[in-house]
Write a structure and sequence with these properties.
This protein has 456 residues and is α/β, with parallel strands linked by helices. It contains nine helices and 39 strands. The protein folds into three domains: 4-224, Spore Coat Polysaccharide Biosynthesis Protein SpsA, Chain A (Alpha-Beta Complex); 251-350, Hexapeptide repeat proteins (UDP N-Acetylglucosamine Acyltransferase, domain 1), CATH 2.160.10.10; 353-456, Hexapeptide repeat proteins (UDP N-Acetylglucosamine Acyltransferase, domain 1, 3 Solenoid). A hairpin with a 2-residue loop joins strand 2 and strand 3.
Amino acid sequence: MNNRYAVILAAGQGKRMKSDLYKVLHPVCGKPMVEHVVDQVTKAGLNEIVTVIGHGADAVKQHIGDRVSYVLQKEQLGTGHAVIQTKEHLKDRKGVTVVLCGDTPLIRAETIEALMNHHEQTAAKATVLTAYAHNPSGYGRVVRDEQGGVLRIVEEKDADETERQVKEINTGTYCFDNELLFDALSKVGNDNAQGEYYLPDVIEILKAQGETLSAWQTPDFSETIGVNDRVALSQAEKAMKKRTNEHWMRQGVTIIDPDHTYISADAVLKPDTVLHPGTMLHGEVEIESHCDIGPFTEITDSRIGEGTSIRQSVVSNSNVGRNVKAGPYAHIRPESELGDEVKIGNFVEVKKSSLKKGSKASHLSYVGDAEIGERVNLGCGSITVNYDGKQKYLTTIENDVFVGCNANLVAPVKVGEGAFIAAGSTITDDVPGKALSIARSRQTNKEGYVKNKEEL
Ligand code: UD1
Ligand code: MG
């Protein structure tokens, strides 16, 4: 097998996005477009990946990290000019170079491999990945001769009426013989509608040199969507969502309404879990089997144990155990740990707190900066008073504590094992284990205080 290199073009600003965010950093299913491309190229197992950066260079580097090497394109003079910037890295090296655009987030490793294999099998010097588009508008068109051989690629802005009718598009992904690529690039001019150095012009140049050219058409246009504006961004999002959802359904996950279920590219789900409409899983989410998630539930960077049910709730950066019940309307904020069989009911907020096995906060509570043992019952409306306006303090509640309704636990405070807090108490001092603590004023009944209405 030849040496295989990849060049990813990611230097453009993306004017058509009309955005403060650089184009290739716009997320699709929660992940920047260019990161999707890098992930797939990495999976395809190439010897070296060079990414061309320019606009937003630092931000792009920060997202991708050191999985690739970088070259800077100071001025964005076109896709051909962008590839020339990689010359120092790749020139004089034997092998095949695949060039991809950072704005085609749906490209798959399997397709990159198939394209490279086709390129090598046909002994071509350049192979274009093409697709049939019902609406080819905005894409470069593939012009073929009567025998079906590739002649050249023409950009829409430079195309004549007949060329514009062509529905086979240039996907922006190509394979080249590495040495011939840089030789041909030096011959690319910028005499065209956009005054840019076009990479696709290499095809025509190689053709004129009598080199063998090839094209490989992918059957799935959606895989090659090039995102230049927000309309295409929404098409990419829709296509990626469909792909991801179908993947998980094939893995045994039930998705009641795939059109309204959003699963990040980095989520991992286990069979027999059910996702109800309006479920959104962001970032690195792991959900074990037999869970029941949603409707209308947002989970970010969290782990959910087997058999857990989360309804109409928000969970972020937390670990949720097995057979937990959360919601409706629970808010599990970052750094929370819910043990097995914990119950977090309606209008309960948990922040940076742990509740061990079997503990419950079933209604209308705030649990912040708290360490709560096993089988603790937090009554309706109980609150950990964790903040004095300057600092946060810890509330510790040991196993088997019963906190009555509407109790305030003013931190720092510790409630010992098996203690009982009377309803309505405001606890400011530690409570010994097994004690009953009542911290409220006594009730006084003033007989006859309220006059009969007739007497008023
Ligand atoms: C390009 C192709 C077009 C193809 C389409 C597929 C050219 C001239 N046209 O058009 O035939 O159908 O992709 O999606 O190549 N970039 C740089 N530096 C530059 C210019 C662009 O790095 O100077 C990067 C961009 O960040 C982007 C990629 O190259 O990721 C493609 O550029 P873009 O402007 O989106 O080209 P298209 O008009 O989509
Ligand atoms: Mg584009």
